[in-house]
Design a protein that fits this description.
Chain A: This is Elongator complex protein 6. Chain A: InterPro entries: ELP6 (IPR018627), P-loop_NTPase (IPR027417). Chain A: Belongs to the ELP6 family. The complex is a heterodimer. The longest helix of chain A has 21 residues, at about 180-200. Helix content of chain A is about 35%, strand content about 15%. By secondary structure, chain A is of the alpha/beta class. In chain A, helix 9 runs parallel beside helix 11 (about 235-250) and helix 11 (about 235-250) runs parallel beside helix 13 (about 275-290). Chain A has one domain (about 1-120, about 135-350): P-loop containing nucleotide triphosphate hydrolases (Rossmann fold, 3-Layer(aba) Sandwich). Chain A has 13 helices and 10 strands. By secondary structure, chain B is of the alpha/beta class. Helices cover about 30% and strands about 15% of the residues of chain B. Chain B has helices at about 5-20, 40-55, 85-100, 115-120, 130-135, 170-180, 190-200, 285-290, 305-310, 315-320; strands at about 30-35, 60-65, 75-80, 105-110, 150-155, 180-190, 235-240, 250-255, 270. The chains are: A alpha/beta, B alpha/beta. Chains A and B meet through helix 11, helix 12, helix 13, strand 7 and strand 8 of A and helix 2 and helix 4 of B.
């Protein structure tokens, strides 16, 4: 039965082995989120069953060679990804121990002081407390999702707060901290992520000498932009350069961004009303990334309204950077398909009318 | 339009685009490419590089968004986190190395996207776009005078810019289009065809991608299943060339996909858009030699003489205008022809 396959056939050529030093952009809207697609990317890189289909990168690339994945998530915590991946049959905790996977948490403590330092970690109970200055600068528009998800995490990570990572988190689950402003703050975050990448590169089972290929998945970096913004000296260009810096450290990058109408079109050149700085910056960041991407996977709602057996539409298109590499393999074509995420987490991908 | 006019335009404008793309005689020191997600400038930039290689022009790429250099680029300068003055210094360093190598005196500087620079928060007040750009073209230094530099800048039209700091300062795009000696706007050929087809039927031309303003749609382009080997894969160039006299030349061209011709082809590959059979279908062969009328047993056509006679008929209202009294005008004046067969009884009715 096709629904039992972790990797639907129609999807396989697009998620298996993105080409070297390429950027793939997955854009999503509120009603059609891209978690399931990110999980498919993880599965294609880490899954046990060898995927026989040649990827859209090198045709001769043998997919049996395991890739390693670094997942940087700004909107969802470790628990979410672990449990979702488990439904696919991926044990992220075990893979972390085997040094094939690393999770970088950009959500839990992004705007709190580092808990490893001498002062105890701030507790969620006293949000409006005086001592937590960085929290107060969060813009009002920060989405409600992080706060909902944020609640259980600090609670579970040990009440003493001295070293929560050793208590709860398995393996190198790094937590990002945003401190200061502007480029320096972004540089710190970039350094922390590249440190995780380097760790993953060097420490390994070591069955082959050559450097393992690292796939970097950045989940919603636009949250970082929205939460900091111009007042912190961070704009679309800085974010773009930040992604570029990370790209240089890994072999392929996948970035998830939101493409909801207000975020894209208010600031766009086609709009006629005045846009807020966030609108402009987000649109510039998202469209700029799309210009640099080789492949863009766009998720959106069904235009004709909600349906019981369709979750949304997936359109795979060639991005602005497509065709820049000499001899770019043309063994994938642009496509638009429908998908349906079932209750058990499995996904059906099918063409219109099938 | 007279046919001689068309052929004159063809030869003249094809020569012009050939001169521009091959960077001959520094025809255009500053070329601005306006692209969008629907039609990225990559094919055109590759065409520039291809021609530069053929004529041994030194190519420099200042990369704001490219990680790896294109094939055929001689000097690759990543611009990430660099200030404009640092970039200028690096380009200058390449300059002197080009100058020492006396074999090629022409130079092409590509900027893959100017948007990140314009959008940067780090730019201080002292940064002036025009000064920055002109210092590439007119480098200072002793060796500089020997090199002819052409600058080709890509600007993504769909990336929104930040509102200007001062309400009186022009937008960067305005400055760029003002400074540029050639502006080339890129369109996807299949979109141009779709829009033309709509206009031909007096429908509203369709829009694509971001302009659709549909939730979740960044890119509307989908290569059609048949589009692969049909001729629709080209790039349409809408060119505006400003002559030294100030007069502008506007023309639409079509750049075919790179797979259509060998990389070493010297002959011009760009054609006028109007010459493309899909854009302007050749008039049907049967159309010119006589309006073919439906076959029937009646003779529906007029002979030459019949037509002359018919034109000679004075219609009643011309006669009525002479106004020779009430009730006088408006007679039917008819000169009887020899083949007319006079009806005796007609007057009796």
């Amino acid at each position: 039965m096709p629904s039992q396959l972790a990797l639907p056939h129609l999807l396989t050529p697009y998620v298996v082995s993105p080409p070297k030093s390429s950027l793939t952009v997955v854009s999503s809207v509120l009603g059609a989120t891209g978690n399931w697609l990110v999980l498919r990317f993880l599965y294609a890189a880490l899954g046990n069953s060898p995927v026989s289909h040649p990827g859209y990168g090198d045709p001769e690339f043998e997919t049996r060679k395991k890739r390693r994945v670094v997942l940087v998530s700004f909107l969802r915590g470790w628990e979410f990804w672990r449990s979702e991946a488990k439904r696919l049959g991926l044990d992220l905790a075990r893979l972390t121990e085997k040094r094939q996977f690393a999770f970088v948490d950009g959500l839990s403590e992004l705007f709190s002081a580092p808990s490893a330092s001498s002062q105890p970690a701030p507790k969620p109970q006293h949000y409006p407390g005086a001592g937590i200055a960085p929290r107060a600068t969060l813009p009002i528009r920060s989405q409600p999702v992080p706060t909902l998800l944020r609640q259980p995490l600090p609670a579970s990570s040990g009440s003493d707060g001295a070293s929560p990572q050793t208590v709860r988190e398995p393996g190198p689950t790094k937590r990002l901290h945003f401190a200061g402003s502007g480029l320096a703050a972004l540089d710190t975050i970039e350094k922390e992520i590249t440190m995780v990448i380097d760790e993953l590169k060097t420490s390994g089972p070591g069955e082959d000498e050559d450097e393992p290929e690292i796939l970097l998945v950045i989940d919603q970096p636009d949250f970082l932009l929205a939460a900091t913004g111009l007042s912190k000296g961070i704009g679309a260009t800085e974010m773009g350069e930040w992604v570029m810096g990370l790209q240089q450290a890994v072999s392929a990058t996948i970035a998830m961004i939101s493409a909801d109408s207000p975020l894209i079109h208010n600031g766009s050149t086609f709009a006629h009303q005045a846009a807020t700085p966030l609108d402009t910056e987000h649109a510039a960041f998202a469209v700029g990334l799309a210009h640099r991407a080789e492949m863009i996977m766009q998720l959106r709602n069904l235009e004709t309204g909600a349906a019981r057996d369709v979750s949304g539409v997936l359109r795979v298109s060639k991005g602005g950077a497509w065709g820049q590499r000499e001899g770019a393999a043309e063994n994938w074509e642009e496509k638009e398909v429908l998908y349906f995420v079932q209750r058990d987490g499995s996904v059906n991908v099918f063409g219109r009318g099938e | 339009m007279a046919p001689s006019n068309i052929s004159h335009r063809q030869t003249h404008n094809l020569l012009l685009i050939s001169k521009l793309l091959s960077l001959r005689d520094t025809a255009s020191p500053l070329t601005l490419l306006l692209d969008s997600l629907e039609q990225p400038a990559t094919p055109l930039i590759k065409e520039y590089i291809r021609r530069a290689r053929l004529s041994k022009v030194h190519v420099t790429l200042i990369a704001f968004e490219t990680l790896k250099p294109f094939d055929g680029v001689d000097a690759f300068i990543p611009a990430r986190r660099k200030s404009p003055s640092e970039m200028l210094k690096e380009v200058g360093a390449v300059d002197s190395s080009v100058a020492s190598n006396s074999s090629n005196r022409r130079r092409l500087i590509l900027i893959d996207s100017i948007n990140p620079l314009l959008h940067s928060t780090r730019l201080d007040k002292s940064f002036h776009l025009s000064t920055f750009l002109s210092s590439f073209i007119v480098p200072s230094g002793p060796a500089a005078s020997k090199i002819d530099s052409s600058l080709v800048i890509t600007f993504h039209q769909d990336v929104p810019g930040r509102p200007a700091q001062s309400p009186y300062a022009p937008q960067p795009l305005t400055i760029l289009t003002y400074l540029a000696t050639t502006v080339i706007k890129l369109h996807s050929f299949s979109h141009i065809l779709a829009q033309k087809a709509a206009r031909d039927r007096s429908l509203v031309p369709p829009v694509f991608g971001l302009a659709e303003e549909q939730d979740g749609v960044l890119l509307g382009r989908l290569d059609k299943p048949i589009g692969k080997d049909s001729a629709e894969g080209g790039v349409v160039l809408e060119m505006e060339y400003r002559r030294k006299s100030g007069r502008g030349v506007l023309e639409w061209y079509l750049l075919p996909p790179a797979s259509r011709y060998p990389a070493t082809q010297v002959k011009e590959v760009v054609t006028l858009l109007d010459d493309h059979p899909l854009y302007r279908p050749p008039e049907e062969v049967g159309f010119a030699d006589g309006e073919e009328e439906p076959e029937s047993t009646f003779e529906l056509r007029l002979t030459e003489r019949q037509r002359r006679d018919r034109e000679g008929v004075v219609l009643p209202y011309f006669d009525a205008q002479q106004g020779s009294g009430p009730g006088e005008g408006g007679r039917i004046l008819y000169d009887m022809g020899e083949e007319d067969d006079f009806d005796e009884e007609e007057d009796e009715i």
